[in-house]
Amino acid sequence: MAVNAVARAPGRLPLLGHLVHLKRDPLGFLTSLPDYGDLVEIQLGGEPAIVVCDAELTRQVFVNDRTYDKGGPMFENARSFCGNGLVTCRRDVHRTQRRLTQAAFHRGRMAGYAHRMASQIVAQTDAWSDGQVIDVLAELMSLSTKTLVETVFCDTLDRNKFPAMHANINTLVYGVLREMITPPHLKGLPGFSSRRFRAACADVRTTILTAVANARATGQKSGAVLTALVNACDEHGRRRLSDQDLNDIMTTIFLAGTETTATTLTWCLYLAAAHPEVAQRLRREADAVLSGKAATYEDIPHLTYATQVIMETQRLYPTAWILTRRTTRPAVLAGQRIPAGRTIICSPYLIHHRRDLYPEPDVFDPGRPAPARGTYVPFGGGARRCIGDEFGTIEMTLALSTIAAAWSLEIVRPPTVKVGVLIRPYGLRMRVRRRC
Hints:
Keywords: Heme, Iron, Metal-binding, Monooxygenase, Oxidoreductase. 49% of the residues lie in helices and 13% in strands. The protein is an alpha+beta fold. It has a six-stranded mixed β-sheet. The protein has a three-stranded antiparallel β-sheet with strand order 5-13-10. It has a two-stranded antiparallel ribbon with strand order 7-8. A hairpin with a 2-residue loop joins β7 and β8.
């Protein structure tokens, strides 16, 4: 069965297809595709893939995970280094994993996690000195990693491993997109080598497996995510997560839970500083709600403008800017027949930058009207929506408001946009000044 009446993107190269475009300017390439139609075929090496350029069609793909399962070369490559965690596993595995994992991210546990987050945020920002110039992403990566260790691993992780884990996460973050989009037959060629990446991933997985063993051996119930997962069981009290399951899940959480939060929060601080009226309103809200103290979980419902700033930042720079699926059976999308085994690409970034959905889409405007259904998808959608979205949003809200209450930030050097698995604000330097 062939794909009928699907537009083809121009610029395909022999052997590489459109990989060069995705490597050189992935965001510009993707946002150019709606000019050709709602469904546009590109080539990933020698494999065709269909990019979904319409918000409603993207929603249909997200909610029908029986037909559009996690797959495609990106996720298949990702499984080779982070296993079958929640982000990469197929539907049949995901249903069981999600049920067993959900309890660790239940809203009732968030207050405990938030208390640990708040302590780390205060410790990190109190170490700043008035007038200091900081590497914002590095500072927030450090904060996010410490927060993750405290909330997810707690005492199960050897603190002596912390520096190595921090170094490894940077190696993985920089290399993960290349690892995901490069076809296996190209990985041995110059410029596509992944030896350092693989070594870092192996070290992370070994460390996590040790933490899992520690959690099982002590039987502790510390309130950390890992201990909740170790003790999780199904409704019959029988099915539990194996060590391999836990290693895959925790590797995914570690990769996703550090960089995503740090990157989004870095963009928040930059965008607020670049728009003085936004920074001023954040400070006014923090002053009114916090009265000079650090933000706590109980304050979050009242930090509404901080939440708007985070949402608009995630519209501009969504956590998941590109996602792939693979059809498990013949499908019809937008009236077009799609064969089984075809890679489908959905891009929250593309949807968030459509001018018909968001007027002046490149403008940062936290006061935008509430988005229409299906047009705001920074965490994906359907059953595969990110399980940690609330966890991450809580951390960002606490950090953004705590910083706004105590510090004023000015841009010393604006960031360079670097696109990897996330859209990173690389090289941002800001001067922090303590508020009186």
